[in-house]
Every structure is written in C-alpha cells, then in structure tokens.
Task: structure prediction
Amino acid sequence: MIATGQNLAVTIPELSGRSLWVDARQRLLRNRAAMAGIVILAVIVLLAVFAPLLSPHAYDAVNYDLISCAPGWWPVEASCSAPGYIFGTDAIGRDIFVRVLYGARVSLAVGLVATIVSLVIGVLYGATAGYLGGRIDSLMMRVVDVLYSLPFIFFVIILMVVFDRNFILLFVAIGAVEWLTMARIVRGQTLSIKQKEFIEAARAAGVGPLGIITRHVIPNVVGPVVVYVTLTVPTVILMESFLSFLGLGIQEPLTSWGVLISDGADQMETAPWMLLFPALFMAVTLFCFNFVGDGLRDAMDPKDR
Result:
C-alpha cells in the first residue's frame, strides 16, 4: 500500500516469478503434436495393460479351424473370414488383436527398461568423465570408443550362445550398447558447465567431487538427457524388433511387435493383415515418441525453435 498526497491508497500487485520447468511445461502443453503423441501413447499403454479384458481369446490360444483368416470387416475377399477376431488370425489360428497388445507389453517394456539402464549408466559415467577430465576422462572415453567398435549383432549372438535365449538378456544386451551415446552427451554437457560459477562456489564451500557430480552437475544436464531419453525408447524398440525379426529376440509363446512383423512378412501376399496391424501399431508408437521428444526439445530450449 502506498499513500499518495490525496490520501488515496494504491495497491501494488505482487509479482511472482516462474521457474524454467513451469515455462517448459506450458510450452509443451501448447505443442499439439507432442500432446497428441502423449495421449496416443497413453491409449496404447492402457490397451496393453487391459489386453486380457478386451478379447475372449488368449494370446496363445490356437484354433486350427481358423488358420490365416481375415477379420470380418476385411474389404478384400480372403480364403476365410473370422468374424469374432478384430484383426483376424495368424498362421496357426491365434487372435492377432490380442497378440499385438501383448506384443506392445514386451516391446514397450524392453524399450523402457533398457532405456532406464542406459540412462543410469550413461549419466553417471559421462558426468564422472566430464567432471574429472584429464587422463581419467581420456581413458574413460577410450573405453567407450572400444565398446562402440564391437559389432552389436555379434555381441548379442555371443550372449545368446553363452547364456541361452532369455527375455532378461535383451535388457542386458541392448542396455549395454545404448548407454554409450548417453555417456557422450552427458560428458559434453558436463564439460560446458564444470567451470561455471556455481560449480566453483561448491568447490570453495568444500563439497567433494561426488557431491558436485550428483547435486550440481547431473541436475543441470537433465534437460538434454530427458530429450534424448524420449528418442532412445523408439531406437530400443526398433532394435528389439530387429533382433526378434532375425529370430534372436523374444521366443514363443511370448511375442513382440518384431516377432509379429517377422511372421506377417512370411504371409504378406496371402494374409496381409498379419503384417499390417503390428506394423501400424509400431509405426504409430515410434512417431509418437519422436513427436514427444521434439516437443520436449522445443519446450526446454525455446531458443532452438
């Protein structure tokens, strides 16, 4: 309240600042493509979670009377029709709709878990190398270069031969490769901020290297890391699908989008619905993750737009 010469009270409104995260959230909410991607991904996740309730057929139930039958609404004439099956049946009479949803469970789980593994390892490794610098940084980055030079497919084949085919092995194999790029990104960001004033102030206050890395360096590289994570998930899904397409990934009776696409490719001419629906779900999911990643990039770095 300020009293004027005419004894009038003037109210000065209080000004409240907005944090970077509030501004980023508002810019993300205004991005229609990113929000549409988030909504579609949420729908796919819900469909995958409630898959057993959406169809009376089990994902591994075989019906030899309906082999490679088209869905009842299929516009092109097929050898047989399966009215009770939304997406038709596969080569041994299983419900493709349920198998696509169960495949979403596996593909999304592999994508998310392998990405989290690469996130944890890559952020800690890259931040440590960038902050310590010198010979330690050079040695740690040479290790990354050596791992980059190893052929990924050969590495997976060796793991499959030594440890037998295992669902968890996919997480190990993919996560063991994807963290390398994450480490390089975090290292570059760390090198750019390690000489900033707040880092020097932390050193002057007696904070040790571990405390500086965990409390000051890593929180300040979260922006680029979050963006890269949204772009890593579709990369991992593609990687798992490629391995499953080659027969090195998920094994029966489990399934994934890669397995379904591989099976559909064999029947593409006679039963195109076997390839169409898993490929469509996978393509939509990859597009959505890319839209979300682009939206986060624009939201966290508006100067880049």
